[in-house]
Every structure is written in C-alpha cells, then in structure tokens.
Write a structure and sequence with these properties.
287 residues, alpha+beta, Aminopeptidase, 2 domains, seven-stranded mixed beta sheet, two-stranded antiparallel sheet, 10 helices, globular
C-alpha cells in the first residue's frame, strides 16, 4: 500500500499493531510521533511529519487494518473545518486599467494572522468551490493594490496524486511520481474578487506568482518545486488567464475521482494546465 506518499509493508503494519498493543495508554498524537521517529519520517527541513502520520493512521483505521484509541479531545481538524466567518471587507467596484493598481503587493499569508482570516473568508464566500481547510504543504497569497485593497487570492497545495495526461507529459512512471510528487504544487484556488474588473490582472498575478513561488516554497519547506499545475472546470471557465500567463494546456481529466475504483463516479471534466518553473523540469521530476 501507498498512503500519504509512503509505501507500507506488512512489517510496517505489524509495527503499528504492536505499538497499539504494547501501549494502550498512548494517545493518537503520541503514536504518530513514535512512528515518525522510528521511520525517520521527516520533511526537507528535518521536522517530523507527525500530521502526515496521523492522517495515515486514520486511513488505515478506515480501511479496517487497525483500531485506534478513542479520541481524548475534539479533533483540531473539526475546529479548522468549522464554518469560516465571512471577512468584512469593502466591496466598492474597482474598474480601472492595471497600471492604476500598481504596484501590487503579493504577500505570503502567515498562520494565525489577520490576513489568514481575511484570506479564508474571501475564498469561503466568493470562490465557487468555497474553502474550509488546507492540509499538507501549501502556500497562500493575498494580493493588494497600491491603496492596500485586496484584489485577489491564490492558494497552492498538494499536487493531484494521479493524472494520466500530466504524468505522461512529465514522463512519470509510478515510482518516480511517488518519489517526486512533493516537487509539484497545485493551484487549487485562484480568485479575483468579484467586484474587481481590471483587464489582464489575473494573468499578471499568475506571472508574478510563478516568478517567486519556488523561492517561497524553499524558504518554508526546505525544498523547491519544479512546476505548477491546475485543473480548470471547462463547463465554467476557458482558462484564458492561465494561457495568457504561458501555462501549458496538456490534456484533460477523465471525469472521475480518485475514489472511483469501479468507474461509476462521474465528476466535471477539467482541463489540465502545467507551468514549468525550470528549464529541465522533467529531469528534476523524474530523478
């Protein structure tokens, strides 16, 4: 099995079951930390991946492989997934040329900051997919104009686990994809606020983000990303801003979800776009 990007053997399952049997007093957090220490499971900055381990344990329990101890407190994910208060922000129409808004300020949204509450509220109210919680490695950007008014939001998170056209374009076999998926990030949300009508703003912001995200990712997680991906619902959008920002349309999805083991779940077909951040991105992603 592969869970959370980690291949699990029978010996790994026996280790988990053994720890559960030997230490019935341990909470789930204690167990996840112990697994990370024994597996030396760390991110590029040397920090243990205890949240990934906790998610792995939950998936194993749902699949019937183990039984975890009862929760001792309210799940923090439940708190994070509660309804996000809508940000109170001025929504007077902004209709102008791009040059009238510049210089734009693109800032990384820090955890626990006022900007994070604003960012979450704007996406929750105004993005068609909504927004509740982000797990795994991610970067959030808030874009303001020269007057300090929010005009756009962008969220980059974990890449799609599988995508046939993307994997073929990169040249990924299964093992290469599993090793290097963290070096690709998915633009899961991109929002120009609905009261902002500024020609070329979206493609300009995408271009600015592409020029800085590799360094931002390195600073936060200790490793770079080599390319960006996104999935555009073709029934809603034409992907114009991505094409204008030189993203490559490399295919489309099959209208299935990752849980569609029996080919029975249908979802919207999406166009797949990719933006290489380095010239030799294929070599880096296939190493």
């Amino acid at each position: 099995m592969v869970m959370q990007g980690r291949r699990l053997s029978g010996a790994d399952l026996e280790l988990i079951r053994g720890l559960l049997g030997e230490h019935p007093q341990w909470c789930r957090s204690r167990l996840s930390v112990e697994l990370c220490e024994r597996w030396d499971w760390r991110n590029a900055r040397g920090r243990i991946k205890d949240m990934a381990a906790r998610t792995l344990l939950l998936k194993l329990e749902r699949a019937g492989h183990i039984r975890l101890p009862a929760r001792r407190s309210v799940s923090p994910n439940g708190l994070r997934n509660r309804c996000i208060p809508v940000a109170d922000v001025a929504s007077d129409p902004i209709r102008s040329a791009l040059c009238d808004l510049q210089p734009l300020a693109l800032s990384v949204v820090a955890p626990g900051s006022a900007d994070l509450r604003l960012f979450n509220g704007l996406l929750a109210r105004h993005h068609y997919l909504g927004h509740r919680n982000t797990v795994g490695e991610n970067l959030r950007y808030l874009v303001r104009d020269r007057q300090g008014r929010p005009v756009a939001c962008a969220l980059f998170g974990s890449a799609a686990w599988k995508c046939a056209d993307r994997d073929a374009f990169i040249g990924w076999e299964r093992g290469e994809r599993e090793r290097n998926l963290q070096r690709l990030t998915n633009n899961t949300r991109f929002l120009v606020l609905p009261w902002v009508s500024v020609p070329h703003l979206a493609s300009h912001v995408l271009g600015r983000l592409a020029r800085r995200i590799r360094a931002d990712w390195q600073a936060k997680y200790g490793h770079p990303v080599e390319a960006l991906e996104t999935f555009v619902d073709r029934d809603r959008f034409r992907g114009t801003c991505y094409r204008a920002a030189n993203w490559l349309r490399i295919g489309s999805t099959r209208g299935r979800t990752r849980n569609d083991r029996e080919h029975s779940i249908r979802t919207a077909v999406k166009d797949v776009y990719l933006y290489p951040l380095v010239t030799d991105f294929r070599r880096e992603l296939c190493a």
